[in-house]
Structure formats: structure tokens, C-alpha cells
Amino acid sequence: MIQFIVKKFIENYDDVTNRKVIKAYGYLCGIVGIISNSILSILKIFIGFYAGSIAIVADAVNNITDVGSSMITIVGFMISDKPADKEHPFGHARAEYITALAISVIIMFVGLKFFTSSIERIRNPKPVIFSIVTIVILSLTILAKFWQGSFYQNIGDRIDSNSLRAVAADSRSDVMTTIVVLISVGCSKFILFPIDGYIGVLVSGFIFYNGIKIAIDAINPLLGVAPDEELVNNIISKVESYEGIEGSHDLIVHNYGLGTTLASIHAEVCDKMTIIEAHEIIDKAEKDISKALNIEIVIHMDPIDCDLKNKMKGDS
User: Fold this and answer.
1) How far apart are CA 195 and CA 212, in angstroms?
2) Integer Cα distance of 42 and 44 in angstroms
3) Which one, of 280, 209, 195, lies nearest residue 244 by Cα?
4) Using CA atoms, how far apart are residues 206 and 254, in angstroms rounded to an integer?
5) Phi and psi, residue 81, nearest 5°
6) Distance (Å, rounded) from C-alpha 269 to C-alpha 273?
7) Which residues pair with 299 in a beta bridge?
8) Which of 46, 57, 230, 233 is most buried, with most CB under 10 Å away?
9) End-to-end distance of the chain based on CA atoms, in angstroms?
10) What whole-number distance in Å separates Cα of residue 37 and Cα of residue 34?
């Protein structure tokens, strides 16, 4: 199903290094989120007011915030695609992290809002109307949210997008909260104390925790985190694979957002090699590695005493 949608709406969907393709993926996820979450929120609001359940209404409003998150996702990809300019020489790709942070703030606000509403329901309990229709609709929304989370995760992994992975995590959290709401509605017929209010508190806790987690995931790359170990190993192995390069050191990797990674490394070349020979090797390595790993790499030529290095190898 996911592959069918991707093939239907994304031109050149396999070229995930192309910024236009990446933007198309982001727009697709945003549109899918707006449509699906709008339908889910309307259904849950209807059955929430019908059943008189604060937990279902809280879950519905959580889906409404997901609509807002999807809109923010589209805006984030739109800004990220803007080319570099004088004020932003490395482009605007980090806007994706700002997008994820904005999503997290919305999610935390909703969590706090329904925490207070659920506490009020515990203090002033109201009966919840049990019906098979409510159970069926909630069950269908769980399946829809599960698929939605899988869709976002699949696309997020394809284009290496933190904001889409954040939305995928939010969808998985929504699956858990709706399951808990479903259980509360099912038990309301047999339990006298205000379980609806307590489940509302639990749901709001899930929502708030997920918001914090998404915020941390968005802030970390803005502060600066260690580069991906696989990328580091790939860069080193590719640099050292060129004939004439004896070794490497001082690798630095900077992540400026989706599809924008800059790296620099010192490549050790024999001091007996001419500058022209060394430059040709380094120049070729920069072009090849940048294209192969979809990064911008600068390689510093670092001459070493080859006789001394070979002697040290022999002594060891």
C-alpha cells in the first residue's frame, strides 16, 4: 500500500538524494496526515460527545493537533528546500528541526490541557454511554493510526527525515492512547468509579511525554551531536582506499539538516609525491566521495615521512 502511494504520487521516487524528490515526499506525508487526521478527529469528536467521554474527546483533539503538525511539516519542507543565501550560506535544511520542535510544543500543550480537563472529570464524574458502534469506530481508528505511523516511518527512513520520524513516533503513541481509551469505554459499563477521567489523565501523560521526546530529538541536532558511526566509517574507508593516500585523521562532520552534510578530513600522502600528483588524488577523492555519500567533503593534504612510517611498521 505504501509503495503504491509512493509510486503513484512521487516522480523519480528512488532518487532520494534529489532535493525536489525529498520535498515531494514531505508534501505527500503532510497531505496524507491532513486528510487522515481530519477524518479521525471528526469521528472521535462525534462518538466522544455521543458517549460523553472526556478521554475520547481528548484523543480527538490530539488528532486535530496532528492536522496542525502535518501543516507544519509541509511548511518545514518548503523552507528547507530554499537554496543557500547570504544570510544562510549552508542553506535552510535545519528548518526541519525547528518544525519538529514546533510540533512538540503543540503536543505538550494539548497534553497539559487535557490533564486539567481529566482531573475535572474525576472531581465531577459523568456517566459514559457504552455502545458497540463506539467500540467499532475506535478499533478502526487504531488500525488507521497504526498504518499512518508505518507510512511516516517508512518515508522518514527513505529520506532520512527527523521530522517525519517524529510524526511517526507521535502516531505510534496515538495507537497506544486510543487502545487505552478503547479499554476504558469497554470497562465503563461494568465499573462504577470515574475510569474515564483517570484514563484521560493517562492519555494526557502519553501525549505530554511524546511531546518532550520529540522536542529532545529536535534540539539535539541543533546543539550538535556525534555523527552517524556508519557515515564516519564510510568516509574514512573511502578516503584511505585511494592509491597514494597512506592514512587519514581529524575527521569533522557537520550536519546542516536534511540532505546537507559537510565534512573535512586530513589525508596523509607521501612527502616524496609531487604537489601536482597529490592534488590530483585529493581532488578526485573529494568529487567521488561527495557524490557517493551525498555530502560535501573537503580533504586537507597532509604530507608525511613515508620512510619513517614504513620503518615504524617494520619495527612493530
Assistant:
1) 26
2) 6
3) 280
4) 33
5) -80, -10
6) 7
7) 265
8) 57
9) 58
10) 6
Q: Give the cell for residue 88.
A: 544562510
Q: What is the pLDDT of residues 166-191, one digit of tens each?
A: 788 878 878 877 887 788 778 777 77
Bridge partners of 247, per DSSP, are: 268
Instruction: Please give the grid coordinates belonging to residue 46.
Output: 462525534
> Which tens digits make up the pLDDT trace of 219-275?
887 777 777 788 899 999 999 999 888 889 999 988 777 667 889 999 998 888 888
Mean pLDDT of the region 136-154: 91
- Give DSSP secondary structure letters for 202-225: HHHHHHHHHHHHHHHHHHHHHH--
Query: Is 303 exposed, middle or buried (CB count within 10 Å of its CB: 0-12, 13-18, 19+)?
Result: middle
* pLDDT at residue 284, rounded to an integer: 92
C-alpha cell at 183: 479499554
Q: Which residues contact 263 (CB under 8 A, 6 or more apart)?
A: 235, 251, 252, 253, 254, 295, 296, 297, 298
Residue 313 confidence class, pLDDT cut points 50, 70, 90: low
Number of alpha helices (DSSP H) and beta strands (DSSP E) in the chain = 10, 3
Are 169 and 213 a contacting pair, CB within 8 Å?
yes
Task: Taking residues 43-58, report their average pLDDT.
Answer: 84
Beta bridge partners of 265: 299
Round the CA-based radius of gyration of the chain to a whole number and report it.
26
List residues bridging with 303 in a β-sheet.
269
The H or E element that residue 32 is part of is helix 19-51
CA 301 to chain centroid, in Å, comes to: 36
Answer for the pair 256, 247: CB distance below 8 angstroms, yes or no.
Answer: no
Given a contact cutoff of 8 angstroms between Cβ atoms, the answer to whether 250 and 267 are in contact is no
CA distance 135 to 47: 10
pLDDT confidence bin for 286, thresholds 50/70/90: very high
